[in-house]
Amino acid sequence: MEYKQSLSRRIVFAFILMTAAVGGLFSVGIVGVVHVVEERLISRDLGGELERIINDDLRNRRRPRLDPGMRFYVSDGPGVYAMPPAFYRLDEGFHEVFDGALSFHALVRDRNGRRFVLLQDQSDFEAREQVLYAAVVSCYVLSLILAGVLGWMLSRKVMEPVARLARQVRHRDQLLELAPPMAPDYANDEVGELAAAFDYAMGRLQEVLNREKLFTSDVSHELRTPLMVIASSCELLAVEPSLGPKSRAQLQRMTAACEEMRGLVQTFLLLARTNREDLAMAPRAELRQIAEEMAEQWRGPIEAKGLRFDYRAEQAPEGQFNAPFLRSVMSNLLRNAVHYTEAGSIRLQLSTSGFVVEDTGEGIPEEQRESVFQPFVRGHSARGEGLGLGLSLVKRICTSEGWEVSLHPVEPHGCRFEVRLPAV
Q1: Which pTM value belongs to this model?
Q2: pLDDT digits (tens, 9 = 90+) for 308-336
Q3: d(Cα 289, Cα 267) in Å, to the nearest integer?
Q4: Residue 275: pLDDT over 60
Q5: Pick the CATH number of 283-420 from 3.40.50.200, 3.40.50.620, 3.30.565.10, 3.40.50.150
Q6: Which residues have a Cβ under 8 Å from the Cβ of 387 and sit 6 or more positions away?
């Protein structure tokens, strides 16, 4: 999985990495220059001193005149000038050798079959060199710390307008209609372009919301009026003594369909409202009350299809819930069960956490169980004139109310929809 960092941390890391690369390059360069200068200058001084000893002192058979801290050895030299065996293994040229706690610069020369070695004590120089190295390392670490602090300060300064823009966009939905444009608050740079893009997107969103509000208001006005006329006509026909049994049965179906339509209109209107205060004003009822209404409404169609209806309400969660939403969810799940069950039974069971609708239909394959909650998706055995919006509506309602809906298989075949309601 890709590891994602915030933009502020990326800026800080960029500063630290750049400082580490540049500072490391300079530090290595300083150390390299010190070594090169040390070898060339000291090698030149030792070479001149060794040539003087060979061409002047030894040729005139005098004892070598050595400065303090110097040592001289020759391969055939007597006494203190006798060469230690370790120097025979050195190549000709400049070297650094150590004698216990002491360190020396050594220059080795071979001439006429004889080997000459001149040593110069460099303990003080080595100590100063270690101080220089410690200073280089300390400055390198300090530069990394300063780069981190500077990167943090700069990232806060750079990201301040972006964070302010994010806060404005985050709270934009509260006063979307009254919120002024954001682009004039920012400079004409990349953040300003981003603010202008948000203003454009918010403007388009506001147009969509206005159209949706107009649509919902039109629906509430245009559909409720004819539904009220139908309901009133059904009530008048119900008291007509001349109606026969078949006509009264048809009238009852019309009345039930009218009530269901009114419930659907109210459900869609509530879903179109994003304000939680508007949703809180919706009628509320207990789960047991809604379940009894749905059981009475669907028992007839279920048994008329030759199925057994099993309603169990021994337990039910406490509290009241959004009645239109709960009625719509339960009704859609029962309608789906009736639609896809040809034999067996349908069960509606209440529990302390919610309710379950279970059928003995053909079931839904595992690879389709998630997609059936999407709009216009129907099962593999789709039939009738349905558009595949029932389960999508159930999912939208549950998401809006904070409920949980899940689909489980039933052995040997069938579906089990479980709706979990949060405690109120």
Answers
A1: 0.50
A2: 999 998 888 888 888 888 888 998 899 88
A3: 18
A4: no
A5: 3.30.565.10
A6: 376, 378
